[in-house]
DNA sequence: TTACAAAGTTAGGTATTTCAAACTTATTTG
DNA sequence: CAAATAAGTTTGAAATACCTAACTTTGTAA
């Protein structure tokens, strides 16, 4: 089901929303799923039937909705992609919070696990490499406003970097 | 039409393909569009009608297909996003060429112009900041294989960085 | 120049995802 | 507990984006 039968973006969204509701509200109610996704209530029922068919949610009419372990696994993966991508967009690219979130909502469906793993590694590297780190991101922010790099600024930036490493 | 009526991913793909065919083959033929997108010939005709309706292609049955200036503008923007994203995925994240291309094909539709502009700036910064650059990416590659940073390696890496800046 | 192949179109059909509105079940409250 | 309200479901319709197969137009070659 994984490689050959990928879920649609829409169904991935449902799993993600159900997972979030399960953790914040204890249970996922159809009404809240509808609201979370921004869809009419009837659409949720249709989606739940499809997800149940695929063995990703436990669904009986008029009763509580829960994820199966397969569904939870996918939901968690989508949620993880969302976190990683949003972190990159907001902390690294300096995209505003709302837009970072909205964009991550779409990107999470088109970047596969492996690609997101690469992004995770890259962010780790930025955070931990002595040549990068928070002050390097700060330098990037300055570069964005200044529009250019100049040797003087770069020299002091680099000096500070070396000093920080030595300490 | 821009903000309120965004094109579907599918229609964006058609514009991108037509633009590419116009530049490589001089003209975009329906058959080649179908092949480029991986769709049956009939599907292309339907799409062309919709695009013509929206004023993005010049379309008359049985005649040549050309982009209008509005269509060309969108096509070029999508193509640009593709280039930027692919560059980031392959050169920075070190994703293999084919996958970088395939993933960029999807990401180009969900990352808006502003977000891609941010990515452009960030890549520029990586390429030009003395603390980053090609050797920093190289260090990232090493980090990926080693799985960790160690102080000794970092020291020499940083020393080299300083030396390169001075020269 | 006619006949054939290639390119393009049309028609009819399927799948997915959504909506609105009528309907059913569950829950709350007087 | 009964009636009102909330939650959930069903049905029928629409939009999008495909497909296949039959059909038409165009261009070419005998």
Shape of chain A: elongated
Question: Biggest sheet of chain A, strands in spatial order?
Answer: 1-2
Separation, N- and C-terminal Cα atoms of chain A = 52 Å
User: Which runs of chain A of at least 5 residues are low in confidence (pLDDT < 50)?
Assistant: none
What would you call the structural class of chain A?
mainly alpha
Helical content class of chain A: over 70%
Average pLDDT, all residues of chain A:
96
Number of helices of chain A: 8
Would you kindly provide a written description of the structure presented here, covering whatever features stand out?
The structure is a homodimer of 167-residue chains. The first copy, chain A, is built from 8 helices and 2 strands, in the order H-H-H-E-E-H-H-H-H-H. The longest helix of chain A is centred in the middle third of the chain and has 24 residues. Chain A starts with 8 loop residues before the first helix and ends with a helix. In chain A, 72% of the residues lie in helices and 2% in strands. Chain A is elongated and about 70 Å long. Chain A has a two-stranded antiparallel sheet with strand order 1-2. With 167 residues, chain A is mostly helical. In chain A, strand 1 and strand 2 form a beta hairpin. At the A-B interface, helix 5, helix 6, helix 7 and helix 8 of A face helix 5, helix 6, helix 7 and helix 8 of B. The structure holds a DNA duplex (30 and 30 nucleotides).
């Amino acid at each position: 089901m994984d490689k050959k039968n990928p879920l649609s973006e829409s169904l991935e969204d449902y799993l993600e929303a159900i997972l979030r509701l399960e953790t914040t509200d204890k249970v996922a109610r159809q009404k809240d799923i509808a609201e979370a996704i921004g869809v009419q209530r009837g659409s949720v029922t249709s989606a739940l039937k499809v997800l149940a068919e695929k063995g990703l949610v436990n669904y009986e009419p008029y009763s509580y909705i829960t994820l199966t372990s397969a569904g939870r696994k996918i939901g968690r993966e989508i949620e993880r992609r969302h976190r990683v991508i949003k972190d990159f967009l907001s902390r690294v690219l300096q995209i505003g919070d709302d837009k970072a979130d909205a964009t991550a909502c779409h990107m999470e469906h088109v970047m596969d696990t492996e690609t997101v793993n690469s992004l995770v590694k890259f962010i780790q590297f930025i955070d931990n490499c002595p040549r990068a780190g928070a002050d390097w991101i700060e330098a990037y922010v300055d570069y964005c406003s200044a529009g250019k790099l100049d040797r003087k600024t770069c020299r002091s930036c680099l000096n500070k970097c070396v000093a920080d490493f030595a300490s």
